[in-house]
Amino acid sequence: MSGGHSHGGHAGGAHRWRLQTAFFLVAGFFVVELVTGLTSGSLALLSDAGHMAADVVALGAALVATRIATRPDSTGRRTFGSYRAEVFASGLAVLLMLGVSVYIGIEAVRRIGGTPEVSSGPMLLVGAIGLVVNIICIVLLRGGAGESLNVKGAYLEVVADTLGSVGVIVAGVMVATTGSAWWDTGIALAIAVFVAVRAVMLGREVLVVLGQHAPAGMDPDRVADALAAVPGVSEVHDLHVWTLTSGMNVATAHLMTGEDADPHAVLDEARQVMRTKFGVEHATLQVEPDTHTGCKEVTW
């Protein structure tokens, strides 16, 4: 039995300074945008602030993941480490994004029939600052996005939030030009819908990981066939493949072999198949002679 112990997907440690800088920039601007949104009466600012809050959580999760990846387990009980902290943080971001979307929707309905007062000046100023902050973060994170999935995830979050900043600027321009606060409400609803859709998509990914489904793009039948094609393997059973956290897929399987098969050669070849064909660095494979009758598949 063997386990590959090379954990990939957390190369973000080398780019931790990029994540830290982006985190403090986005967190600082979130506070400014939230306060300005509340004082100016702009729903567009508040909806974008909610999206910014989700970005703060995403960047924080990436920072936590890069720290945990290099921290040894002192308890001896976390046999898979604490890599799923990133997944739980993503789940929190989903709840936060959905909560913001619902709040904006309720506020928009409450404004029906009323004449809300919205200050376009603060909207334009804060929207422009937000755009600058997002562009700086995009430049920072782009340098590490090609090497780390954590950095890439944070990079995509900031890219998406740039659209929110553009929406705030458009809303500010239209309110200043037309004098109608409905532009603010309409664009706020558009941002809220955008955030809700992204939250649902991210939520599905979180549930897939927590439900230990087979990773996206990895067909268990194809994995079984590839392992069965290894010279000396006569049968593959008790196969499980799942995702521990982003960029870290793991697998377990039992490989039955003929009497003349070299178990060491079978094991080495099977691990190579999992690594090269399916990108699974951590595969726990149990090699059993076909004369062994003690192995019975469990019922789940």
UniProtKB/TrEMBL annotation:
It comes from the Bacteria. Keywords: Ion transport, Membrane, Transmembrane, Transmembrane helix, Transport. The chain crosses the membrane at residues 21-43, 87-106, 118-141, 153-175, 181-201. The keyword Membrane applies. GO terms for molecular function: zinc ion transmembrane transporter activity. It holds the Pfam family ZT_dimer. Residues 219-289 form the Cation efflux protein cytoplasmic domain. It is a multi-pass membrane protein. GO terms for cellular component: plasma membrane. Belongs to the cation diffusion facilitator (CDF) transporter (TC 2.A.4) family. SLC30A subfamily. The lineage of its organism: Bacteria, Bacillati, Actinomycetota, Actinomycetes, Micrococcales. Its main location: membrane. This is Cation transporter. Residues 21-210 form the Cation efflux protein transmembrane domain. It is found in: Membrane. PANTHER family: CATION EFFLUX PROTEIN/ ZINC TRANSPORTER, RE54080P-RELATED.
